[in-house]
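FYI - complex with methionine sulfoxide, inputs then prediction.
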Amino acid sequence: MDRAGQYEDLKSEIESVVSGETYVPARYASAACLLSLAFSPRFFWTGFYIVDPIKPSELVVGPYQGTLGCLRIPFGKGVCGACAAQGESIIVPDVHAFPGHIACDSRTHSEIVVPVYDASGALAAVLDIDSEQPDAFDEVDRSGLEAICRTLLTA
Ligand code: SME
């Protein structure tokens, strides 16, 4: 099966696992687990940074799979902060060439960050996926992950 098909299957699986569950961290945790399992070892770190409801200009780490992630990322900082500020997905083929990249784990070479919106259209979180491989992510990942993120807070 090609990767686009894998993403479609994964989206259905995630939807059926989280269906009826209203506690958002449980939905994020299930998605992080299934994404990480499906695409390991290409996905080295898979998880969510959530918009802090107390300090909405900052992201705070949420459910993830992988090595220790940094706890807080201000909007505008690093790839996650840039995604939160712009509200659009970002693919970074080489993190060392990205100004202000936050190196939580020096093994990370490339990453993709996708915004997660709530039903009202407000940014709720970003999904951050890092890889040890250079240039690991492409448009198939972007559209597959965006489709999954669209279902996470609205299903
Ligand atoms: N890669 C992120 C930081 C978070 S960790 O790598 C888990 C960034 O630069 O936004």
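The mean pLDDT is 95. The longest helix spans residues 3-18.
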